[in-house]
Specification:
The complex is a heterodimer of chains A (526) and B (322). Helices cover 28% and strands 21% of the residues of chain A. Chain A is an alpha+beta fold. Chain A is globular and about 70 Å long. Classes of the chains: A alpha+beta (526), B mainly alpha (322).
Chain lengths: 526, 322
């Protein structure tokens, strides 16, 4: 039996420094936060974006949540026990927890919420539970592996052990919703959410602002903040101006200003850069010529020098990459060797592939989605590959069109960023490279490597530890050596936070301006 | 006698109006067909776009069915037109709410902004144009016309950023952005930004039209009667000079509609322009169709209003109608 109950709640890292966190939280005030886009929905079953999640995480709770170290800790569940074979998880719910409408949470709410969300936009969160696939397909009336033991106990049975399962239970898609409110409001639940969270929904004027207010009866006690206002400001320069005018308490640093805010006498102490769980990469469609030939892929990998992109375009405010997993991800290995920048080796590989000096290749289309940074990166790549005789033809499409040509396999060489949904290597390596996930499910390289599949399958089912990590490392190294994916850099969050904001987590899951960390510990010192 | 003439002119105007309104139908129909076809040839799938970085194949299929994207294009379009005939604009893919509701909650913001921008253009533009025309070739004339050209040629986004930087961040006189629950202070900078191009064209047109008019015989007569120049220009000349200006205002509506998404973006203004841009990015076809329809309607009705305005300003059109 593995117990998670009783894990100490780690004191939130205050952005303003350790001295501040020693102060007692002061109650009251409104946190003025900001989003770059209007959330499409506030319904956990239908959200697929971080903006929606940033609100959902304040309004709802799951059985578990992630602490600052990205470890699942109890939330609505007061404890969880896992069976020795790792296939059965029993959650004991905290008694007396109330929804915002005053009703107490029961185990039946968990079953209802999971079955509802399994038919939403992120069914993969629930597909590991026995019988979920049948239920999602519509051939079963409920998820067979979900069993109500009593009013406050629920048992989840998996088809096979899946190590990151508790991470899924801490994910916002697995938030607990009250059935009567969902049924009463219908699709309107997405614009007027009701959960158990530390903040309850107050108002939402589309494209203007979302307002939350403190829920005094939250099971962890009342949060210090009275209200949270998320302004919706699409232009990054406008967010920056609002912040400088004193109208926002936190925001993101505009592109190209990372160094200048750190040197600005006023903003210096308010700027923070920290690693997040994402990697900016280049991918090949390995199922199609010319990149079915690994030598050609390796030639390109050796011809690219990401230093220029990291240091010049991104002002050194992102993290250089060796492998695929970002350093902030639990399970990251610093022992991965990337295919080093080496034009001589690149040219030699071109010769071996039968294309000396790039002969016979013609211009190679490179697909990327619209954005200033993506455009500049594409131009750098074009210049670097020209050095070994390869001509890139830049193809810029907006996101909807880009993802289409990437998913359907018509793009042969393209950019793709990946941000972990939950902090586990499985969410990078298995999703992006297992042959089971070819296409829109994540493996847009259309990579098939039986040895890699086997390593990933084994690791996915193992309990966390060095044996599991070692398998992921072997798989990751094999993928890097095969040059299926070329990492350019790992993402960072570049934020500005007023000194008066205390207790805001710098979680690797958050990326400014959307802070996904819980705001229930945040307080204002003004 | 006059009475019957009058009612005859109103009937004529009514007939002309009715004709214009009837022509509206085919125009709007053509526009919807065009937008639908453009969307059909554009790459991208609304169901996939709604999924984020990772799409579950079964959820994708279900969403395509829900959005009725699995049906032939012609069927999709005919269904949409059929609903429209019953006054139903359909349901937004992205927000899963009625398109009419999605647009209606943003329309007041856009109307306010467009109205304020037009007001800025008319008041500032006519004033600047008239001042410049008083002494053509003077330093004041050059300065005002220089400013007008600047207003016309400055990119909306850049102008908005600069105005915000000076008046909001540096001087702190006005808010940087936002709707502010409809406060006038929040409206000033967006209205100036969106109205700038328009102000420039109106100023230039007022000036050239005034200069044209002051050479006319009746103005010379007014001067000959010994009327002060202020009255000559203000009363006799300006009124006639405004006729082409009204045309410019009508044509300028198109510029307002083009500028609205940019102004709304830089000032975080919750209007239809921003909605349209986001909907195109998400391939939220029902919202795109609905928003384009609203813009087209505003444009056509706006021009109709301009035609009516001629009748008020220009006595000749009234006489011609009788």
């Amino acid at each position: 039996m593995r117990k998670l109950a009783g894990l100490a709640v780690v004191v939130a890292l205050a952005l303003a420094g350790a001295g501040a966190s020693a102060q007692a939280p002061r109650a009251g005030g409104t946190l003025r936060a900001v989003f770059s886009a209007d959330p499409p929905t506030l319904d956990p079953a239908h959200a697929t974006d971080t903006t929606s999640s940033a609100v959902i995480r304040q309004v709802f709770d799951g059985l578990l949540e992630l602490d600052e170290t990205l470890t699942p800790v109890p939330a609505l569940a007061r404890r969880v026990d896992a069976s020795a074979d790792g296939r059965v998880y029993t959650f004991a719910l905290r008694p007396g927890v109330r929804f915002h409408n005053g009703r107490e949470v029961r185990a039946a709410d968990v079953k209802y919420s999971f079955e509802r969300a399994a038919k939403g936009k992120r069914p993969w969160v629930f597909e590991k539970i026995s019988g979920a696939r049948e239920f999602i397909k519509g051939t079963a009336d409920g998820i067979g592996g979900v069993r109500l033991v009593d009013d406050l106990t629920i048992e989840l049975r998996l088809d096979r052990p899946f190590a990151p399962f508790l991470h899924l239970m801490a994910y916002d898609a697995a938030s607990i919703v009250p059935r009567e409110e969902v049924e009463k409001r219908g699709p309107g639940f997405a614009s007027h959410p009701v959960g158990t969270g530390a903040f309850r929904f107050a108002s939402w004027r589309r494209d203007d602002q979302v307002v939350l207010e403190r829920f005094p009866d939250h099971f962890r006690g009342s949060a210090p903040l009275d209200r949270v206002v998320f302004r919706i400001i699409p232009a990054e320069i406008t967010r920056f101006n609002e912040y400088r005018a004193g109208q926002l308490d936190l925001t993101d640093v505009p592109t190209g200003q990372c160094r200048s805010v750190q040197n600005d006498p006023q903003l210096r102490g308010e700027a923070a850069v920290w690693p997040t769980l994402g990697t900016h990469g280049l991918r090949f469609n390995v199922a199609k010529p010319p990149f079915a030939d690994a030598r050609l892929r390796r030639a390109i990998a050796h011809a690219i020098d990401p230093t220029l992109i990291v240091e010049r375009l991104l002002e050194g405010c992102v993290y250089p990459a060796r492998g695929i997993l970002p350093p902030a991800l639990p399970g990251y290995s610093s022992g991965i060797r990337r295919l080093a920048f080496d034009r001589g080796r690149a040219k030699q590989l071109l010769v071996e592939a039968g294309h000396p000096g790039g002969r016979g290749l013609g211009p190679i289309p490179f697909n990327f989605n619209t954005g200033d940074l993506n455009q500049r990166i594409a131009e750098v790549l074009q210049a670097q590959l020209r050095e070994i005789g390869i001509a890139l033809e830049l193809r810029r499409l907006d996101w909807a069109a880009h993802i289409k040509v990437v998913d359907d396999g018509s793009a042969v060489f393209f950019r793709q960023g990946w941000i972990a949904d939950y902090p586990d290597p499985e969410n990078f390596l298995t999703v992006l490279f297992h042959s089971r996930n070819i296409g829109a499910a994540g493996n847009t390289s259309r990579y098939r490597n039986a040895a890699v599949d086997r390593l990933l399958d084994e690791a996915d089912g193992m309990a966390p530890g060095p044996t599991r990590s070692a398998r992921y490392h072997r798989a990751e190294q094999a993928i890097v050596d095969d040059a299926v994916w070329i990492s350019l850099y790992h993402y960072s969050s570049r934020a500005l936070v007023k000194r008066s904001v205390k207790g805001l987590e710098r979680s690797a899951l958050s990326s400014a301006p959307e802070f996904l960390a819980p705001l229930r510990r945040v307080w204002l010192d003004r | 006698m006059r009475r019957s003439e009058g009612s005859g002119s109103i009937a004529d105007i009514g007939r002309a109006l009715l004709g214009r309104l009837l022509a509206l139908g085919p125009v709007l129909f053509g526009i919807t067909l065009l937008v639908f076809l453009l969307n059909a040839i554009a790459l991208g799938d609304p169901a996939r776009a709604a999924m984020g970085q990772r799409a579950d194949p079964e959820a994708l299929e279900r969403l395509r069915r829900d959005y009725a994207l699995d049906r032939p294009l012609a069927v999709q379009y005919v269904t949409w037109i059929g609903r429209l005939a019953r006054g139903d604009l359909g349901t937004s893919f992205r927000e899963q709410r009625a398109v009419a509701e999605v647009i209606a909650e943003r329309l007041p913001a856009t109307v306010r902004l467009a109205f304020a921008a037009t007001l800025v253009a008319v008041v500032l533009g006519v004033a600047a144009g008239a001042l410049a025309a008083v002494r053509p070739g003077s330093a004041l004339d050059h300065a005002l016309m220089g400013a007008a050209v600047l207003g016309i040629s400055t990119p909306v986004f850049w102008l908005g950023m600069m105005l915000a930087l000076v008046f909001a961040v540096t001087l702190g006189w006005l808010p940087v952005s936002g709707y502010g629950g409809g406060s006038l202070r929040h409206l000033v900078l967006p209205a100036l930004t969106l109205g700038a191009l328009h102000t420039g064209t109106v100023a230039r047109m007022t000036r050239s039209s005034l200069l044209e008019v002051v050479r006319q015989d009746y103005v010379q007569t007014a001067r000959g009667k010994g009327l002060p120049e202020r009255i000559v220009l203000g009363k006799h000349a300006l009124r006639n000079a405004l006729i082409p200006v009204v045309t410019v205002i009508g044509i300028g509506l198109a510029d307002l509609l083009v500028g609205a998404p940019l102004t709304e973006t830089v000032f975080a203004w919750p209007g239809v322009g921003r909605l349209l841009v986001a909907a195109v990015g998400q391939r939220d076809l029902p919202v795109v169709m609905g928003a384009v329809l609203v813009f087209a309607l505003v444009y056509v009705l706006g021009n109709l209003l301009v035609d009516l305005a001629y009748l008020v300003i220009d006595p000749r059109t009234r006489r011609a109608a009788t």
